[in-house]
Specification:
The chain is an alpha+beta fold. About 15% of the residues lie in helices and about 40% in strands. The longest helix has 13 residues, at about 95-110.
Length: about 190
């Protein structure tokens, strides 16, 4: 039955699946694979594959008032796609989201940024993975060097905010983290107009 949404206060408690246990299949410092013994509400019990990412990640929208948004351009061998991405990476143990944002931008672009503001947190693919992204916005302050992680991008580009919807529509931003960050930043008014 479809109901009319009247606000978050009217939402019922979710009907939670029962987790009977977990069985490790593979484990490494970067990810693990588990078979989780689950029983959906009014459903048949079965084993569901879950990719466990042991750390959360940050994705940063960096904007310069005159140049636009700083994007990395690279090829991803896993999906064999090339396109624009935002500076992003894992949050290290004991590190805050904003400290990770500053570190990742500096490592991947060579730019220092203003103190970042987190504007969104989202699960990357919550049907199969535990990976969680925090999205932040910051101003580009100064280029202080070359990228430390040279393998992170083929090139860096400044892109005007007005050009972002077309790049996304045309498939030039193929990854969900960058696409989510850019669309949310545009939608929430984080990006200044061209």
């Amino acid at each position: 039955m479809i109901q009319e949404y009247t606000g978050v206060e009217s939402l019922p408690d979710p009907r939670r699946w029962t987790v009977h246990g977990r069985r490790p299949v593979y484990d490494s410092p970067w990810m693990a694979l588990e078979l989780v013994d689950v029983e959906p509400v009014a459903g048949m019990r079965y084993e569901h594959h879950v990719v466990v990412i042991p750390y959360e990640a940050v994705c940063v929208v960096v904007q310069h008032p005159d140049r636009g948004v700083l994007l990395l351009y690279r090829h991803r061998f896993i999906t064999d796609t090339a396109g624009f991405e935002l500076p992003a990476g894992g949050i290290e143990a004991g590190e805050s989201v904003t400290d990770a944002a500053v570190r990742e931008v500096l490592e991947e672009t060579g730019w220092e940024i203003s103190p970042p503001t987190v504007f969104l947190t989202a699960n990357a693919s919550d049907g199969v993975s535990t990976q969680r992204f925090h999205f932040a916005h910051a101003a580009a302050l100064a280029q202080v060097g070359e990228p430390r992680d040279a393998h992170e991008a083929d090139r860096l580009y400044w892109v005007r905010p007005g050009d972002l919807p077309g790049l996304i529509r045309d498939g030039r931003v193929p990854g969900c983290p960058a696409m989510t960050g850019l669309l949310a930043a545009l939608s929430f008014g984080c990006l200044a107009a061209d």
